[in-house]
Specification:
- The chain has helices spanning 2-28, 154-160, 234-271, and strands at residues 38-42, 47-51, 65-70, 75-80, 87-89, 96-100, 103-107, 113-116, 121-123, 129-131, 136-137, 162-165, 170-174, 179-184, 187-189, 196-198, 203-206, 215-216, 220-224, 226-228.
- With 273 residues, the protein is an alpha+beta fold.
- It has two domains: 2-80 and 233-271, no CATH class; 87-228, no CATH class.
- The strands form seven sheets. Strands 7, 8, 11, 15, 16, 17 and 18 form a seven-stranded antiparallel β-sheet that branches. It has a three-stranded antiparallel β-sheet with strand order 12-13-14. A two-stranded antiparallel sheet has the order 1-4.
- The two termini are 22 Å apart.
Length: 273
């Protein structure tokens, strides 16, 4: 039982170190657009009986039962909190924020797909809507979004037309005399967000595509000229740091207590030989 207590406490300490790393990552990304804070989930806490060191726990003599102590917890799953971040107005035409559920769908030059809430977009030299890392933003039909029709002069159109992106993600080119409907930005979601794996500070992919396929999001609005800020809160994360430190200290005491008990048990065993 003592050895099991030491093992459980050690696992708990490792889990708390992992948690501290996650908290540090959350703190370092409080200003990252579209960032979603990470959290660790733990297995049930184990408990162990504690006796005084008077006498032996191997013999029914003067040892005295003191109660139980926590053996700590073991982390088993790292998940993200996808709650809404605050929206900040930028006024930039290609800055987009999702209010509600869903993700922008992006594609790198190799065709690899990812999902993000970071809507800090730009238009590249070929007039495609892209992330600042050069990944293409996809529309509802999984096509790359071109902000100006291919047979139009970009320089001429840029001066005379205004890009308007509606709440449903529909893109229009507007002038004083006409409105030209274009593509619609794809907003996709997943039924099991715990299945999403982070491949960057703001990019995710589903681990089980077969059982957790992408879905067209229904509860959202796209806000043009705005960005969704990180949902990581400095004060809350600092409180988590303090709590983690206290829990770690408690487990070190558990390790110390069980180590003393183990040494006593070994010593008594030798004397009895």
């Amino acid at each position: 039982m003592i050895v099991r207590g030491l093992e459980s406490a050690a696992k708990g300490m490792v889990a708390l170190m992992d948690m501290n790393d996650r908290i540090a990552n959350n703190l370092s990304n409080v200003n990252t657009v579209g960032f979603k804070k990470g959290e660790l989930r733990f297995k049930d806490v184990m408990q162990s009986a504690v006796y005084s060191q008077e006498g032996s726990i191997l013999r029914n003599d003067t040892s005295r039962y003191l109660g139980t102590v926590s053996m700590g917890s073991e982390a088993y799953q790292y998940v993200h909190d996808f709650s809404q971040g605050a929206l900040e107005k930028t006024g930039n035409t290609y800055d987009l924020a999702i209010e509600g559920d869903g993700f922008f769908k992006i594609q790198d030059v190799e065709g690899k797909i990812a999902y993000t809430r970071n809507g800090s977009f730009i238009v590249n030299n070929e007039e495609y809507l892209v992330t600042k890392q050069g990944e293409y933003v996809l529309d509802v039909n999984n096509r790359r979004i071109r902000m100006i029709p291919e047979d139009w002069d970009p320089e001429l159109m840029r001066d005379k037309m205004e890009i308007v992106i509606g709440e449903s993600g529909n893109i229009e080119m507007n002038s004083y005399t006409q409105k030209i409907p274009m593509q619609t930005i794809g907003i996709f979601d997943f039924s099991d967000k715990d299945d999403l794996f982070e491949i960057g500070d703001t990019k995710f992919i589903p681990m089980d595509k077969e059982n957790n396929p992408e879905l067209r999001s229904e509860k959202f609005t796209v806000q043009q000229g705005m960005l969704e800020l990180s949902n990581s809160n400095v004060i809350k994360e600092m409180i988590n740091t303090i709590q983690t430190s206290r829990n770690y200290e408690s487990l070190t005491k558990v390790v110390s207590t069980n180590s003393d008990l183990l040494r006593t048990a070994v010593s008594v065993g030798r004397i009895g030989q």
